[in-house]
Amino acid sequence: MQQFTSVPRNDRMLTVEQLRTRILDDDIDTVILAFTDMQGRLQGKLVHGRFFLDSVLGHGTEGCNYLLAVDVDMNTVDGYEISSWEAGYGDMEFELDLGTIRLLPHRPGSAMIQCDLKTTAGQAIRVSPREMLRAQTERAASHGWKAVAGTELEFVVFDTPYDEAWDRGYRDLVPANRYNVDYSVLGSTIVEPLLRDIRNTMYQAGLTVESAKGECNFGQHEIAFKYDDVLTTADNHTVYKTFAKDLARQHGQSITFMAKPNQREGNSCHVHMSLRGKDDDELVFWDEGAGGRSVTYDRFIAGVLATMRDFTLFYAPNINSYKRFVKGSFAPTAIAWGNDNRTSAVRLVGRGAGARMENRLPGGDMNPYLGLAAMLAGGLYGIEHELELEPETLGNAYESGAPTVPTTMHEAREALASSEIAAEVFGEDVVRHYVHYADVETEAFDAAVTDWELRRGFERL
């Protein structure tokens, strides 16, 4: 069985030998083996520590291949090539990435390892989100580059616990802040017991924490983490998102990362990305001699813009995602770019080593592997095809007349299904898989009877 590097990503993460010692010393009794599914969720197994050493460490483990062919409710869904009743719902292998061993300090006695997915014949499963991102990093590496990124993930905190929220049908929940606390120190300190616990827990789990700040929606906050290579950033993103919810439950509260949880401001996930040479000091996006952006950077921006409509489904993967795209909401509608312009989909910030592009399209519900893969794939397409960067949009991009992002999942589905670029950079099999994912979601939503319909029609129509 192939193993990835066992070198920890930093000194807060564990080597294989450190994990072995802690298990034998009874400090760790549970090893969580997890991968990220289509919906961006960590799925996997909680393995007893001694069994992990004896039977899993050298051989990996397995799970049903339906885990990449279900909906949010874990219903088996017809129409996927990877898994079906006719094929018998066989296994796929969890291949341990031993560079990702981390402690979970809020779950004493537990460690976690993230995994890649392989067929039982040892082939990479191309529709797996982590494999899709890995494929794009290899494409960048073929040019001598590596991609680095940071994701700025917003969430809304409620003082209503998860179980009670479920029982209430997610209505009449109590926000942790009753008013707009954007950048408010007082507003952050009100929620600080939870925010502090998340920051410190994530640091001990191997993430590098930057800061926390309040946002506009009632109870809305953001915790930022330092950028890293794109695969590490995606791994960390899923760990943070999963265990922030776990910590909120421990505090008797709840968190949502939904793109649009109510009629107020939605949850964004702004993605900052740049290319570097294999040596971190080698700049790709900046021309030191000219004191400005490099030609490569401009072509990368052009590629992200040129593919934004086609790839929107990877940035906005849920029905609810599209409720966020409202003029004047700081969520973009115009496919345009600007220097430090928060009204456009692409905002350029920084100089020199700090030069990077911010993609403001994704929401808090983005699957980080899919969103980062789409952004990197689009940028590389622009470089490889030498696309020219259109003129900067000045002023209010909402009123610029620029092309707009899809406003429904139906529209995003059609854009991806008909995209020759998507088929070129991801493969037709990957496109078919995620087009079917969109079909499943839209068919379920189109068949649902909503509270809005009942309120308007039950008595009055």
Give a structural overview.
- This protein is an alpha+beta fold.
- It folds into 2 domains: about 15-125, Roll (Ubiquitin-like (UB roll)); about 135-450, Creatine Kinase, Chain A, domain 2 (2-Layer Sandwich), CATH 3.30.590.10.
- The chain contains 14 helices and 17 strands.
- The chain has helices at about 15-25, 50-55, 130-140, 160-165, 185-190, 190-205, 230-250, 295-305, 310-315, 370-385, 410-415, 420-425, 430-445, 450-455; strands at about 30-35, 40-50, 60-65, 90-95, 100-105, 110-120, 145-160, 210-215, 220-225, 230, 255, 270-275, 285, 290-295, 335-340, 345-350, 355-360.
- The strands form 3 sheets. Strands 7, 8, 9, 10, 11, 12, 15, 16 and 17 form a 9-stranded mixed beta sheet that branches.
- Helix 3 (about 130-140) runs parallel beside helix 10.
- The longest helix has 21 residues, at about 230-250.
- The radius of gyration is 22 Å and the shape is globular.
- The termini are far apart.
- The model has no long low-confidence stretch (mean pLDDT about 95).
SSE map:
Blueprint: H1 16-24, E1 30-36, E2 42-48, H2 49-56, E3 61-64, E4 91-96, E5 102-103, E6 110-118, H3 129-141, E7 145-158, H4 162-167, H5 185-190, H6 192-204, E8 209-214, E9 220-225, E10 228-229, H7 230-250, E11 254-256, E12 269-277, E13 286-287, E14 292-293, H8 295-306, H9 312-315, E15 337-339, E16 346-349, E17 356-359, H10 368-384, H11 409-417, H12 420-426, H13 428-447, H14 451-457
Parallel strand pairs: 1-6, 15-16
Antiparallel strand pairs: 1-2, 3-4, 4-6, 5-6, 7-9, 7-10, 7-11, 7-12, 8-9, 12-17, 13-14, 16-17
Helix pairs in contact: 3-10, 6-7, 8-10, 11-13, 12-13
